[in-house]
Design a protein that fits this description.
Layout lengths: L9 E4 L19 E6 L17 E7 L11 E2 L10 E2 L12 E12 L2 E5 L7 E8 L2 H4 L21 E2 L2 H7 L1 H11 L14 E6 L2 E7 L5 E8 H4 L1
Parallel strand pairs: 9-12
Antiparallel strand pairs: 1-2, 1-8, 2-7, 3-6, 3-8, 4-5, 6-7, 10-11, 11-12
C-alpha cells in the first residue's frame, strides 16, 4: 500500500502548555477554550462556508508531544486504574501506531482564518489535519455500549476544590473557573497514591500547584506566572 501523506490544515491554540493537566477526553471541561488557526493556504472564508449551521465539529489532530509509538500492542488505560492492559485499538490512548487524535468540540464562532472552540483536550500548538461537522443524527447512538468506559470518570465535588481568595484574585475569574473544572477531573495518575504529593500544571500562562487534602478534595497552594518561573 502506498503511504498516505497528510499535512496540517491548522494549528490548535489551547491553554495547555504541557501534556499534564490536559483533559483526557474532549468536552469534559467546557471552560477549556481554544482557537483553530488555519494555515494561510486554508484560511480563505470559502473553506468554512456553511459551517455556521453546526454547533459542534470534529478535529482530527496529531499527538505531537508524544514520543514515537513503541510498537506495543497493548496500553494501560487510566479508566482501568493504570495497571490493567487492553489492546491499543480497544483504547483512546495517545500511544498508538499513527498518533492521531479525535476531538469533538463546541463551535463558538467563525472568524477570519480561525475558529473559536470549547471543550478542547490538546496541548497548545497541536497540528489539526481536518475539521468536520458533527452530525447528531448519525453520530449519537443512544443504545451504543462501552462496558468499562461507559460512564464519565468520577469527579471531585465542586465544593471539594479549594482555591484561596488571594490566588483566585490573581488568576482572574476565567482562569479560576478553568482550574476548578480541571481539578475536578482528578488529574493525577490513577496508579499513583495522591496523599502527600504535590502536583503542578501549566495552564493559561500560570503554573498552578495543588495537593490532596486529608479531609478530601484538593487545595491549590501556589499560582505563579510562567514568566516569573524562568
Amino acid at each position: 500500500m502506498t503511504p498516505l501523506v497528510v499535512n496540517p490544515v491548522a494549528l490548535l491554540r489551547t491553554p495547555f502548555a504541557e501534556k499534564f493537566g490536559v483533559p483526557r477526553q474532549s468536552g469534559l471541561v467546557p471552560e477549556a477554550e481554544g482557537v483553530v488557526e488555519f494555515l494561510p493556504e486554508f484560511a480563505a472564508p470559502e473553506f468554512t462556508r456553511g459551517l455556521e449551521a453546526f454547533s459542534h465539529v470534529w478535529l482530527i489532530t496529531a499527538f505531537h508531544k508524544n514520543p514515537g509509538w513503541t510498537g506495543s500492542a497493548v496500553v494501560r488505560p487510566p479508566r482501568l486504574g493504570g495497571n490493567e492492559r487492553v489492546g491499543v485499538f480497544a483504547s483512546r490512548s495517545p500511544n498508538r501506531p499513527n498518533g492521531l487524535g479525535l476531538s469533538l468540540v463546541r463551535l463558538l464562532s467563525i472568524e477570519p482564518g480561525r475558529l473559536r472552540v470549547a471543550g478542547v483536550d490538546a496541548v497548545d500548538g497541536t497540528p489539526v489535519y481536518d475539521v468536520k461537522p458533527y452530525l447528531p443524527w448519525a453520530e449519537a447512538i443512544p443504545d451504543a455500549t462501552s462496558d468499562w468506559a461507559k460512564e464519565q470518570p468520577e469527579t471531585v465535588p465542586a465544593d471539594g476544590i479549594h482555591i484561596p481568595e488571594t490566588l483566585a484574585a490573581r488568576l482572574g475569574g476565567a482562569t479560576t473557573r478553568l482550574v476548578r473544572q480541571l481539578l475536578r477531573l482528578q488529574l493525577q495518575p490513577a496508579y499513583q497514591e495522591a496523599a502527600g504529593r504535590d502536583y503542578g500544571m501549566t495552564v493559561s500562562g500560570w503554573n498552578v500547584r495543588w495537593r490532596a487534602r486529608a479531609e478530601g478534595g484538593v487545595e491549590v497552594f501556589e499560582a505563579t506566572r510562567v514568566e516569573d518561573c524562568d
